Amino acid sequence: MKAEQDIFHKFLAQKDLRDTPQRELILDVFLKREEHVSAEQLYDIIKKRDPSIGQATVYRNLKLLSEAGLAREVDFGDGVTRYEHNYNHPHHDHLVCRGCGKMVEVVDSVIEELQKRVAEQYGFVLTDHALYLYGNCAECRKGHRSG
Amino acid sequence: MKAEQDIFHKFLAQKDLRDTPQRELILDVFLKREEHVSAEQLYDIIKKRDPSIGQATVYRNLKLLSEAGLAREVDFGDGVTRYEHNYNHPHHDHLVCRGCGKMVEVVDSVIEELQKRVAEQYGFVLTDHALYLYGNCAECRKGHRSG
DNA sequence: TTGCTAATGATTATCATTATCAATAGTAAA
DNA sequence: TTTACTATTGATAATGATAATCATTAGCAA
Predict the structure, then answer these.
(1) Measured CA B43 to C1' C5 distance, in angstroms
(2) pLDDT block averages, 10 residues each, chain B of length 147
């Protein structure tokens, strides 16, 4: 938990940005959440600790955390940007249940490798990708909770 | 081009929906565009043929075309929903150049198969997925048009 | 034709996010 | 420690894509 703060402080110094209590608070709350959060969700949590904070500040600083390499944006395609930890949290894809919304982080090195090759076939050099797998989890199928 | 119209008419009949000139026009223009289009783009094109058409009608009916299985939504993550042909246009993923925006449709049956297996490992039955590969195309790398 | 009701077009609402801007507050130098 | 500079904040308005509303229009079956 110390390392992330160091990274953030160095990032701020390097970019000539200022260290503010709001930024510390946002980083702190973000780090304590293990799951991905939207700006809205984080704002709701943060308000309890500092009711005077503005929601624009939360939006602004989540972007900043991404720039600092501490957060990573994820887009589940529902129009809301979520943020997840990027430090000590290696790349992965997302397996999402259509029934209950449960989300599992997955990786398959073979898929990753094949993606690179497919890109190369078309003369592209792959920089990144987004893979979302949608399906129905075991419980949902058992409980008829899904289609 | 006849087949799609048949499908649409049957879909309308089956759902007790009406056949209107606006719907015919939207379908016609959509079918003539080979590339994916947003509702906004399609509206701009359609206005030239029928300036009285409302943009809500375009939004509404693109959704309807999706329900009818003639169109398919694609989400490039820029906040705009685009529609592409779904009839006689099998599933594929998208390889997008970060430099010039060029888009190539790709498929790799091994990747597809592996995705299913990864899902199964977690007790999921895969229904669909979204895979977007981002990189830099040959021209962009040659012309220093990208990072 | 008539009658029922879906569809349309104009408009407003929504929702996440961004821009604006006056007031506030880090921070480096005096 | 004061000053001065300017980044940051919070409140609020703006944005942009899409959805909802609603009175009017128009398919279509009887």
Answers:
(1) 27
(2) 90 96 98 94 96 97 97 90 95 90 92 97 94 93 60
The closest alpha carbon to A27, from A16, A51, A14, A3, belongs to A3
Q: Does A146 touch chain B (CB under 8 A)?
A: no
A139 falls in which pLDDT band (50, 70, 90)?
Answer: very high
Instruction: For residue A108, give every residue at least 6 positions away whose Cβ sits within 8 Å of its Cβ, in sequence order, or none.
Output: A93, B114, B115, B118
Q: Tell me the mean pLDDT in the region A13-41.
A: 96
Nucleotide nearest to B55 (CA to C1'): C9
Q: Where are the domains of chain B?
A: 2-85, 93-142
**Model pLDDT, residue A46:** 97
Q: Which fold has domain B93-142?
A: Dna Ligase; domain 1 (3.30.1490)
Architecture of domain A2-85: Orthogonal Bundle (1.10)
DSSP string, A76-145: -SSS-EEEEE-TT----EEEEETTT--EEEE--HHHHHHHHHHHHHTT-EEEEEEEEEEEE-HHHHHTT-
Element (H, E) at B111: helix B109-121
B146 touches strand C (CB under 7 A): no
Confidence of residue A144 (pLDDT cuts 50, 70, 90): low
Contact assessment for residue A59 and residue A70, using Cβ atoms and an 8 Å cutoff: no
* Nearest CA-CA distance, residue A23 and chain B, Å: 27
* CB spacing of B133 vs A123 below 8 angstroms: no
Number of residues that make up chain A: 147
